[in-house]
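Agenda item 2: pyridoxal-5'-phosphate complex prediction
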Amino acid sequence: MVPIQDASSIAHRLSLGKPLFWLNPACAHDAPHPELEEIEAAAARLQRCAPLLAQLFPELAADNGLIESPLLAVPALQQALALPGRLLLKADHDLPVAGSVKARGGFHEVLCHAESLALDAGILHSIDDDYLKLASPEARALFAQHLLGVASTGNLGLSIGVIGAALGFDTCVHMSSDAKEWKKQRLRNFGVRVIEHSSDYSAAVAAGRADTEANPRGYFVDDENSPRLFYGYAVAALRLRDQLARAGIPVDAEHPLMAYIPCGVGGAPGGICFGLKQVFGNAVHCFFAEPAEAPCVLLGVQDPSIPSVYDIGLSCQTDADGLAVGLASEWVCTRIRTLLAGVYTVTDESLYQDLYRLQSTEQIAIEPSAAAGIQGPARLLSQGADYLGARGLESRLAQATQLIWTTGGRLVPDEEYKKFLERGKIASNETLTD
Ligand SMILES: Cc1ncc(COP(=O)(O)O)c(C=O)c1O
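Presented output:
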Protein backbone atom coordinates (compact mmCIF):
# COMPACT_ATOMS: atom_id res chain seq x y z
CA MET A 1 0.00 0.00 0.00
CA VAL A 2 1.50 3.29 -1.07
CA PRO A 3 0.23 6.78 -0.29
CA ILE A 4 -0.19 8.82 -3.44
CA GLN A 5 -0.81 12.43 -4.21
CA ASP A 6 0.35 12.83 -7.81
CA ALA A 7 -2.84 13.32 -9.84
CA SER A 8 -1.33 11.97 -13.06
CA SER A 9 -0.62 8.55 -11.58
CA ILE A 10 -3.94 8.12 -9.80
CA ALA A 11 -5.94 6.45 -12.55
CA HIS A 12 -3.09 4.05 -13.23
CA ARG A 13 -2.61 3.20 -9.57
CA LEU A 14 -6.34 2.74 -9.06
CA SER A 15 -6.60 0.50 -12.10
CA LEU A 16 -4.43 -2.08 -10.32
CA GLY A 17 -7.30 -2.64 -7.89
CA LYS A 18 -4.93 -2.47 -4.90
CA PRO A 19 -5.66 -0.50 -1.73
CA LEU A 20 -4.34 3.02 -1.80
CA PHE A 21 -4.51 6.15 0.29
CA TRP A 22 -5.19 9.34 -1.61
CA LEU A 23 -4.94 12.87 -0.30
CA ASN A 24 -7.13 15.39 -2.03
CA PRO A 25 -4.90 18.18 -3.37
CA ALA A 26 -7.97 20.42 -3.77
CA CYS A 27 -8.82 20.16 -0.07
CA ALA A 28 -8.53 23.76 1.02
CA HIS A 29 -7.83 24.14 4.69
CA ASP A 30 -9.66 27.44 4.80
CA ALA A 31 -12.31 26.61 2.21
CA PRO A 32 -15.35 28.82 2.75
CA HIS A 33 -17.93 26.98 4.73
CA PRO A 34 -21.02 25.92 2.89
CA GLU A 35 -24.40 27.25 3.88
CA LEU A 36 -25.98 25.97 7.06
CA GLU A 37 -29.54 27.06 6.29
CA GLU A 38 -30.42 24.12 4.06
CA ILE A 39 -29.23 21.65 6.67
CA GLU A 40 -31.14 23.39 9.42
CA ALA A 41 -34.26 23.42 7.25
CA ALA A 42 -33.92 19.66 6.75
CA ALA A 43 -33.43 19.15 10.50
CA ALA A 44 -36.53 21.27 11.19
CA ARG A 45 -38.57 19.23 8.70
CA LEU A 46 -37.53 15.95 10.33
CA GLN A 47 -38.41 17.49 13.69
CA ARG A 48 -41.91 18.57 12.68
CA CYS A 49 -42.48 15.14 11.14
CA ALA A 50 -41.26 13.34 14.27
CA PRO A 51 -44.74 12.80 15.80
CA LEU A 52 -45.88 11.41 12.44
CA LEU A 53 -42.91 9.02 12.33
CA ALA A 54 -43.56 7.92 15.90
CA GLN A 55 -47.13 7.06 14.88
CA LEU A 56 -46.12 5.27 11.66
CA PHE A 57 -43.28 3.31 13.28
CA PRO A 58 -43.95 2.29 16.89
CA GLU A 59 -40.27 1.43 17.40
CA LEU A 60 -39.58 5.20 17.18
CA ALA A 61 -42.05 6.09 19.94
CA ALA A 62 -39.44 5.94 22.71
CA ASP A 63 -37.34 8.56 20.88
CA ASN A 64 -40.41 10.66 19.98
CA GLY A 65 -40.03 9.92 16.28
CA LEU A 66 -36.38 10.86 15.98
CA ILE A 67 -34.32 8.70 13.63
CA GLU A 68 -30.94 8.78 15.33
CA SER A 69 -28.09 6.48 16.26
CA PRO A 70 -25.86 6.42 19.33
CA LEU A 71 -22.29 7.65 19.54
CA LEU A 72 -20.30 4.82 21.08
CA ALA A 73 -16.97 4.51 22.85
CA VAL A 74 -15.21 1.38 21.61
CA PRO A 75 -12.27 0.79 23.99
CA ALA A 76 -11.70 -2.85 23.05
CA LEU A 77 -11.55 -2.00 19.35
CA GLN A 78 -9.26 0.92 20.12
CA GLN A 79 -6.93 -1.37 22.03
CA ALA A 80 -6.94 -3.95 19.24
CA LEU A 81 -6.08 -1.23 16.71
CA ALA A 82 -3.49 0.33 19.07
CA LEU A 83 -4.79 3.84 18.37
CA PRO A 84 -3.86 6.98 20.32
CA GLY A 85 -6.40 9.59 21.38
CA ARG A 86 -10.09 8.81 21.52
CA LEU A 87 -11.85 6.34 19.22
CA LEU A 88 -15.62 6.60 18.74
CA LEU A 89 -18.16 4.89 16.54
CA LYS A 90 -21.09 6.75 14.98
CA ALA A 91 -23.45 3.81 15.01
CA ASP A 92 -25.63 4.39 11.96
CA HIS A 93 -25.60 0.62 11.46
CA ASP A 94 -28.18 0.74 14.24
CA LEU A 95 -30.43 3.48 12.83
CA PRO A 96 -34.00 2.40 13.53
CA VAL A 97 -36.56 1.42 10.90
CA ALA A 98 -34.28 1.61 7.85
CA GLY A 99 -31.08 0.17 9.37
CA SER A 100 -28.55 2.31 7.51
CA VAL A 101 -27.05 5.74 6.88
CA LYS A 102 -29.52 6.13 4.01
CA ALA A 103 -32.35 6.65 6.53
CA ARG A 104 -32.03 10.36 7.31
CA GLY A 105 -31.73 11.48 3.67
CA GLY A 106 -34.28 9.02 2.33
CA PHE A 107 -36.90 9.83 4.94
CA HIS A 108 -36.24 13.53 4.52
CA GLU A 109 -36.79 13.47 0.77
CA VAL A 110 -40.03 11.47 0.94
CA LEU A 111 -41.33 13.70 3.73
CA CYS A 112 -40.50 16.79 1.61
CA HIS A 113 -42.53 15.36 -1.24
CA ALA A 114 -45.44 14.30 0.97
CA GLU A 115 -45.45 17.70 2.69
CA SER A 116 -45.54 19.56 -0.60
CA LEU A 117 -48.34 17.38 -2.03
CA ALA A 118 -50.37 17.80 1.16
CA LEU A 119 -49.85 21.59 1.20
CA ASP A 120 -50.94 21.80 -2.46
CA ALA A 121 -54.01 19.66 -1.78
CA GLY A 122 -54.97 21.75 1.27
CA ILE A 123 -54.58 18.79 3.63
CA LEU A 124 -51.87 20.74 5.43
CA HIS A 125 -52.60 24.45 5.73
CA SER A 126 -49.04 25.48 6.59
CA ILE A 127 -45.85 23.99 7.90
CA ASP A 128 -47.10 24.83 11.40
CA ASP A 129 -50.10 22.53 10.92
CA ASP A 130 -50.52 19.13 12.59
CA TYR A 131 -48.34 16.72 10.62
CA LEU A 132 -50.29 13.71 11.88
CA LYS A 133 -52.65 14.73 9.08
CA LEU A 134 -50.12 13.11 6.72
CA ALA A 135 -51.28 9.75 8.09
CA SER A 136 -55.00 10.54 7.66
CA PRO A 137 -57.19 8.52 5.24
CA GLU A 138 -57.43 11.65 3.07
CA ALA A 139 -53.66 11.97 2.78
CA ARG A 140 -53.23 8.24 2.16
CA ALA A 141 -55.78 8.41 -0.65
CA LEU A 142 -53.83 11.31 -2.16
CA PHE A 143 -50.45 9.59 -1.89
CA ALA A 144 -51.85 6.36 -3.36
CA GLN A 145 -52.37 8.23 -6.62
CA HIS A 146 -48.68 9.14 -6.77
CA LEU A 147 -45.81 6.95 -7.87
CA LEU A 148 -42.61 7.12 -5.84
CA GLY A 149 -39.61 5.64 -7.64
CA VAL A 150 -36.01 5.07 -6.62
CA ALA A 151 -33.03 3.03 -7.77
CA SER A 152 -30.72 1.45 -5.26
CA THR A 153 -28.00 -1.03 -4.45
CA GLY A 154 -30.22 -1.94 -1.50
CA ASN A 155 -30.18 0.40 1.47
CA LEU A 156 -31.57 3.54 -0.15
CA GLY A 157 -34.34 1.34 -1.51
CA LEU A 158 -35.03 0.04 1.99
CA SER A 159 -35.23 3.57 3.34
CA ILE A 160 -37.45 5.03 0.60
CA GLY A 161 -39.54 1.87 0.33
CA VAL A 162 -40.35 1.68 4.01
CA ILE A 163 -41.38 5.32 4.45
CA GLY A 164 -43.07 5.49 1.03
CA ALA A 165 -45.19 2.42 1.72
CA ALA A 166 -45.97 3.58 5.26
CA LEU A 167 -47.39 6.86 3.91
CA GLY A 168 -49.38 5.00 1.26
CA PHE A 169 -47.45 5.95 -1.90
CA ASP A 170 -47.38 3.60 -4.87
CA THR A 171 -43.73 2.79 -4.24
CA CYS A 172 -41.41 1.14 -6.72
CA VAL A 173 -37.75 0.29 -6.07
CA HIS A 174 -35.39 -0.49 -8.95
CA MET A 175 -32.65 -2.74 -7.63
CA SER A 176 -29.22 -3.08 -9.22
CA SER A 177 -27.70 -6.53 -9.68
CA ASP A 178 -25.65 -6.09 -6.49
CA ALA A 179 -28.68 -5.80 -4.22
CA LYS A 180 -29.04 -8.61 -1.72
CA GLU A 181 -32.04 -10.92 -1.97
CA TRP A 182 -33.15 -10.36 1.63
CA LYS A 183 -33.37 -6.59 1.07
CA LYS A 184 -35.69 -7.14 -1.92
CA GLN A 185 -37.81 -9.60 0.04
CA ARG A 186 -38.10 -7.25 2.98
CA LEU A 187 -39.42 -4.53 0.68
CA ARG A 188 -41.92 -6.86 -0.96
CA ASN A 189 -43.20 -7.74 2.50
CA PHE A 190 -43.95 -4.03 2.99
CA GLY A 191 -46.00 -3.99 -0.21
CA VAL A 192 -43.32 -2.24 -2.25
CA ARG A 193 -42.94 -3.15 -5.92
CA VAL A 194 -39.38 -4.32 -6.60
CA ILE A 195 -37.96 -4.31 -10.11
CA GLU A 196 -34.76 -6.32 -10.47
CA HIS A 197 -32.17 -5.13 -12.97
CA SER A 198 -29.35 -7.30 -14.21
CA SER A 199 -27.24 -4.16 -14.61
CA ASP A 200 -25.16 -2.08 -12.24
CA TYR A 201 -26.32 0.81 -10.09
CA SER A 202 -25.92 3.60 -12.69
CA ALA A 203 -27.98 1.68 -15.24
CA ALA A 204 -30.64 0.92 -12.60
CA VAL A 205 -30.83 4.65 -11.84
CA ALA A 206 -31.29 5.48 -15.54
CA ALA A 207 -34.02 2.84 -15.91
CA GLY A 208 -35.75 3.87 -12.68
CA ARG A 209 -35.64 7.53 -13.60
CA ALA A 210 -37.13 6.87 -17.06
CA ASP A 211 -39.83 4.57 -15.69
CA THR A 212 -40.88 6.97 -12.93
CA GLU A 213 -40.79 10.12 -15.02
CA ALA A 214 -42.98 8.49 -17.68
CA ASN A 215 -45.76 8.67 -15.11
CA PRO A 216 -47.23 12.20 -14.85
CA ARG A 217 -47.62 11.64 -11.11
CA GLY A 218 -44.24 10.04 -10.75
CA TYR A 219 -41.56 11.36 -8.40
CA PHE A 220 -38.06 9.96 -8.69
CA VAL A 221 -35.71 10.04 -5.72
CA ASP A 222 -32.52 10.64 -7.63
CA ASP A 223 -29.53 9.51 -5.58
CA GLU A 224 -27.19 11.03 -8.19
CA ASN A 225 -28.69 14.54 -8.10
CA SER A 226 -30.71 15.19 -5.01
CA PRO A 227 -30.34 18.21 -2.71
CA ARG A 228 -33.19 16.83 -0.60
CA LEU A 229 -31.32 13.60 0.09
CA PHE A 230 -28.02 15.43 0.56
CA TYR A 231 -29.26 17.93 3.15
CA GLY A 232 -31.14 15.16 4.92
CA TYR A 233 -27.91 13.17 5.21
CA ALA A 234 -26.15 16.33 6.42
CA VAL A 235 -28.49 16.55 9.42
CA ALA A 236 -26.29 13.83 10.95
CA ALA A 237 -23.61 16.49 11.49
CA LEU A 238 -25.91 18.65 13.65
CA ARG A 239 -26.93 15.63 15.67
CA LEU A 240 -23.30 14.55 16.09
CA ARG A 241 -22.36 18.06 17.24
CA ASP A 242 -24.98 17.79 19.99
CA GLN A 243 -23.93 14.28 20.97
CA LEU A 244 -20.29 15.31 21.28
CA ALA A 245 -21.25 18.37 23.31
CA ARG A 246 -23.39 16.25 25.65
CA ALA A 247 -20.46 13.87 26.12
CA GLY A 248 -18.16 16.83 26.89
CA ILE A 249 -15.88 16.05 23.94
CA PRO A 250 -14.35 19.19 22.44
CA VAL A 251 -13.73 19.63 18.71
CA ASP A 252 -11.47 22.55 17.87
CA ALA A 253 -7.98 23.26 16.55
CA GLU A 254 -6.40 21.61 19.61
CA HIS A 255 -8.84 18.69 19.56
CA PRO A 256 -9.28 17.69 15.92
CA LEU A 257 -11.95 15.30 14.70
CA MET A 258 -11.15 12.78 11.96
CA ALA A 259 -14.18 11.06 10.40
CA TYR A 260 -14.01 7.91 8.23
CA ILE A 261 -17.14 7.27 6.18
CA PRO A 262 -17.96 4.44 3.72
CA CYS A 263 -18.80 5.82 0.30
CA GLY A 264 -20.86 4.63 -2.68
CA VAL A 265 -22.33 7.20 -5.09
CA GLY A 266 -21.26 9.91 -2.65
CA GLY A 267 -24.58 11.28 -1.37
CA ALA A 268 -24.59 10.04 2.22
CA PRO A 269 -20.90 10.57 3.01
CA GLY A 270 -20.92 13.76 0.94
CA GLY A 271 -23.83 15.20 2.89
CA ILE A 272 -22.22 14.22 6.19
CA CYS A 273 -18.87 15.75 5.16
CA PHE A 274 -20.61 18.93 3.99
CA GLY A 275 -22.46 19.14 7.30
CA LEU A 276 -19.39 18.39 9.41
CA LYS A 277 -17.34 21.06 7.64
CA GLN A 278 -20.14 23.52 8.24
CA VAL A 279 -20.28 22.69 11.92
CA PHE A 280 -16.58 22.19 12.74
CA GLY A 281 -14.71 23.97 9.92
CA ASN A 282 -10.98 23.28 9.85
CA ALA A 283 -11.16 21.22 13.04
CA VAL A 284 -12.72 18.28 11.17
CA HIS A 285 -11.00 16.08 8.59
CA CYS A 286 -13.22 13.81 6.49
CA PHE A 287 -11.93 10.69 4.77
CA PHE A 288 -14.08 8.46 2.60
CA ALA A 289 -13.60 4.69 2.26
CA GLU A 290 -14.32 3.05 -1.09
CA PRO A 291 -13.87 -0.48 -2.48
CA ALA A 292 -10.63 -0.92 -4.43
CA GLU A 293 -12.77 -2.08 -7.38
CA ALA A 294 -15.22 0.84 -7.15
CA PRO A 295 -13.47 4.07 -6.13
CA CYS A 296 -15.89 6.26 -8.06
CA VAL A 297 -15.89 9.30 -5.76
CA LEU A 298 -12.10 9.36 -5.62
CA LEU A 299 -12.15 9.51 -9.42
CA GLY A 300 -14.95 12.06 -9.50
CA VAL A 301 -13.41 14.43 -6.97
CA GLN A 302 -9.96 14.45 -8.54
CA ASP A 303 -11.22 14.81 -12.12
CA PRO A 304 -14.20 17.11 -12.83
CA SER A 305 -14.95 15.18 -16.05
CA ILE A 306 -16.08 12.36 -13.68
CA PRO A 307 -14.75 9.18 -15.25
CA SER A 308 -16.33 5.89 -14.27
CA VAL A 309 -14.41 3.03 -12.67
CA TYR A 310 -14.95 1.04 -15.87
CA ASP A 311 -13.07 3.75 -17.81
CA ILE A 312 -9.93 2.83 -15.91
CA GLY A 313 -10.42 -0.92 -16.23
CA LEU A 314 -11.95 -1.73 -12.84
CA SER A 315 -14.83 -4.18 -12.44
CA CYS A 316 -17.03 -2.47 -9.81
CA GLN A 317 -17.39 -5.97 -8.32
CA THR A 318 -17.44 -6.00 -4.53
CA ASP A 319 -19.30 -7.71 -1.70
CA ALA A 320 -19.84 -4.24 -0.24
CA ASP A 321 -23.16 -3.95 -2.04
CA GLY A 322 -23.91 -0.42 -0.80
CA LEU A 323 -20.59 0.82 -2.18
CA ALA A 324 -20.78 -0.96 -5.56
CA VAL A 325 -21.12 2.17 -7.66
CA GLY A 326 -19.20 2.78 -10.89
CA LEU A 327 -19.94 6.46 -11.45
CA ALA A 328 -20.02 9.10 -8.72
CA SER A 329 -22.64 11.80 -8.34
CA GLU A 330 -21.25 14.84 -10.10
CA TRP A 331 -23.56 17.05 -8.05
CA VAL A 332 -22.02 15.73 -4.84
CA CYS A 333 -18.43 15.79 -6.11
CA THR A 334 -18.77 19.46 -6.98
CA ARG A 335 -19.95 20.25 -3.47
CA ILE A 336 -17.26 18.37 -1.60
CA ARG A 337 -14.26 18.93 -3.90
CA THR A 338 -12.55 21.40 -1.56
CA LEU A 339 -13.91 19.88 1.66
CA LEU A 340 -12.84 16.23 1.43
CA ALA A 341 -9.45 15.44 3.00
CA GLY A 342 -8.90 12.18 1.18
CA VAL A 343 -10.06 8.70 0.21
CA TYR A 344 -8.61 5.29 0.96
CA THR A 345 -9.64 2.11 -0.80
CA VAL A 346 -10.25 -1.30 0.75
CA THR A 347 -10.39 -4.90 -0.43
CA ASP A 348 -13.34 -7.15 0.32
CA GLU A 349 -11.07 -9.39 2.40
CA SER A 350 -10.12 -6.50 4.66
CA LEU A 351 -13.80 -5.55 5.03
CA TYR A 352 -14.63 -9.04 6.28
CA GLN A 353 -11.66 -8.97 8.64
CA ASP A 354 -12.78 -5.64 10.08
CA LEU A 355 -16.38 -6.84 10.39
CA TYR A 356 -15.06 -9.81 12.37
CA ARG A 357 -12.77 -7.57 14.44
CA LEU A 358 -15.69 -5.36 15.44
CA GLN A 359 -17.71 -8.38 16.51
CA SER A 360 -14.89 -10.01 18.45
CA THR A 361 -13.86 -6.81 20.25
CA GLU A 362 -17.14 -4.98 20.78
CA GLN A 363 -19.87 -7.53 19.90
CA ILE A 364 -21.25 -5.16 17.28
CA ALA A 365 -22.80 -6.58 14.10
CA ILE A 366 -22.58 -4.64 10.84
CA GLU A 367 -22.74 -5.38 7.12
CA PRO A 368 -19.61 -5.50 4.92
CA SER A 369 -20.11 -2.02 3.37
CA ALA A 370 -20.34 -0.55 6.83
CA ALA A 371 -16.95 -1.95 7.84
CA ALA A 372 -15.05 0.25 5.40
CA GLY A 373 -14.47 3.01 7.97
CA ILE A 374 -12.82 0.75 10.55
CA GLN A 375 -9.32 0.76 9.08
CA GLY A 376 -9.45 4.55 8.51
CA PRO A 377 -7.54 5.70 11.62
CA ALA A 378 -4.75 3.17 11.13
CA ARG A 379 -4.50 4.05 7.44
CA LEU A 380 -4.23 7.76 8.22
CA LEU A 381 -1.54 7.14 10.81
CA SER A 382 0.51 4.82 8.61
CA GLN A 383 -0.05 6.48 5.21
CA GLY A 384 -1.18 10.04 5.87
CA ALA A 385 2.01 11.53 7.31
CA ASP A 386 1.96 14.28 4.66
CA TYR A 387 -1.55 15.31 5.66
CA LEU A 388 -0.85 15.17 9.38
CA GLY A 389 2.45 17.01 9.01
CA ALA A 390 1.09 19.78 6.78
CA ARG A 391 -1.65 20.55 9.31
CA GLY A 392 0.35 20.18 12.46
CA LEU A 393 -1.83 17.27 13.54
CA GLU A 394 0.86 14.82 14.63
CA SER A 395 1.37 16.53 17.96
CA ARG A 396 -2.40 16.64 18.54
CA LEU A 397 -3.19 12.97 17.97
CA ALA A 398 -3.32 12.24 21.69
CA GLN A 399 -6.17 14.73 22.11
CA ALA A 400 -7.86 13.99 18.78
CA THR A 401 -11.14 12.12 18.26
CA GLN A 402 -11.14 9.47 15.56
CA LEU A 403 -14.68 8.70 14.43
CA ILE A 404 -15.54 5.55 12.52
CA TRP A 405 -18.94 5.79 10.82
CA THR A 406 -20.58 2.35 10.71
CA THR A 407 -23.28 2.77 8.10
CA GLY A 408 -25.50 -0.30 8.00
CA GLY A 409 -26.33 -3.70 9.41
CA ARG A 410 -29.25 -3.62 11.83
CA LEU A 411 -31.60 -5.43 9.48
CA VAL A 412 -29.20 -8.11 8.20
CA PRO A 413 -30.76 -11.53 8.82
CA ASP A 414 -28.85 -13.74 11.28
CA GLU A 415 -28.01 -16.41 8.69
CA GLU A 416 -26.46 -13.79 6.40
CA TYR A 417 -24.48 -12.25 9.22
CA LYS A 418 -23.11 -15.65 10.27
CA LYS A 419 -21.72 -16.08 6.76
CA PHE A 420 -20.02 -12.66 6.89
CA LEU A 421 -18.53 -13.52 10.26
CA GLU A 422 -17.26 -16.89 9.10
CA ARG A 423 -15.63 -15.28 6.11
CA GLY A 424 -14.05 -12.63 8.35
CA LYS A 425 -12.73 -15.26 10.73
CA ILE A 426 -11.12 -17.22 7.92
CA ALA A 427 -9.63 -14.06 6.38
CA SER A 428 -8.25 -13.01 9.78
CA ASN A 429 -6.69 -16.42 10.47
CA GLU A 430 -5.14 -16.45 7.01
CA THR A 431 -3.55 -13.06 7.67
CA LEU A 432 -2.22 -14.25 11.03
CA THR A 433 -0.62 -17.36 9.50
CA ASP A 434 0.82 -15.53 6.48
C1 LIG B 1 -24.18 0.55 4.30
C2 LIG B 1 -23.87 1.68 3.38
N1 LIG B 1 -22.84 2.48 3.65
C3 LIG B 1 -22.52 3.52 2.85
C4 LIG B 1 -23.25 3.80 1.71
C5 LIG B 1 -22.81 4.93 0.84
O1 LIG B 1 -23.76 5.91 0.57
P1 LIG B 1 -23.73 6.67 -0.81
O2 LIG B 1 -24.08 5.67 -1.87
O3 LIG B 1 -24.73 7.72 -0.69
O4 LIG B 1 -22.34 7.15 -1.01
C6 LIG B 1 -24.33 2.97 1.39
C7 LIG B 1 -25.15 3.21 0.19
O5 LIG B 1 -26.12 2.57 -0.08
C8 LIG B 1 -24.65 1.89 2.23
O6 LIG B 1 -25.67 1.07 1.96
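Discussion summary: The longest strand covers residues 284-291.
Owner for follow-up: CH.
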